[in-house]
Amino acid sequence: GENVEQHPSTLSVQEGDSAVIKCTYSDSASNYFPWYKQELGKRPQLIIDIRSNVGEKKDQRIAVTLNKTAKHFSLHITETQPEDSAVYFCAASSYQAGTALIFGKGTTLSVSS
Amino acid sequence: KAGVTQTPRYLIKTRGQQVTLSCSPISGHRSVSWYQQTPGQGLQFLFEYFSETQRNKGNFPGRFSGRQFSNSRSEMNVSTLELGDSALYLCASSLGTGSPSNQPQHFGDGTRLSIL
Q: Nearest CA to CA, how far is A51 from chain B (Å)?
């Protein structure tokens, strides 16, 4: 089945710096890659997603890139702010798996001012 | 639109008991998926319900079961509770029609289950 590896597990940046989180997946049939942000004690919140027919997607300070050949995708956050501090999860799903999202282990991002 | 609502928020049970958790999806969403979140295993898919039918299932024992009602609300049941079942149980809803594998899923706040 699908396996998603996420790196790094922790990331500390200064306010205003950029942050990059990388994920690799194993199932070449995966076609949907969402990213979730989870603040302490709160629900995972969908922040951006990308489908396999697209190479890059941006939403203000957040962007996601997908390399289907290498089977990896990345989250880029520019001009980080203290409120970006949270745990970020990448996930993958495939047509065969339906709605089942396979998640990475998460990255704890700390933005210090 | 109201978001995904899960009840109760917290539950304390003892080993051997059973528990039922509830999830009300976003209005118009017909698919409800359940996930278990633990520090060690992260977020793991339990199962998905659509139109009152289990459409997909993860690798959890038969003690974990669920159902969905005609209004798309879903319940999850865990029988013969074990210490290892202590976790945050999250449900997520999505439209469920068309191509379900690439539709955004929106999570509820979860039910924190503690087994003593």
A: 7
